[in-house]
Amino acid sequence: MDHIVTVQDAVTAFADFMEPTDAELDAIEREMPVILADVELLDAHIVTLDRTPTELDARRIRRARRRALAARVALINRAAGASRSGGAA
Known about the structure:
Layout: H1 8-12, H2 22-47, H3 55-84
């Protein structure tokens, strides 16, 4: 009979190395408005999965889509502005 051996020590032995770095946490923080806007859009779509969307549902989806796009544009503009700063005078 073969015994099943747990591999918890092997998995948790690298837990300290698996933590996100400060740069990764900063990137998540910068992208948080986009993440939240995407969650709002997903919630708006989920509400309509089991029924025919009403006009109110359609407006909620459009509004959430606009917020998601605006958050993405703002993130891209911030990234582009950061890469352009410090140019020639």
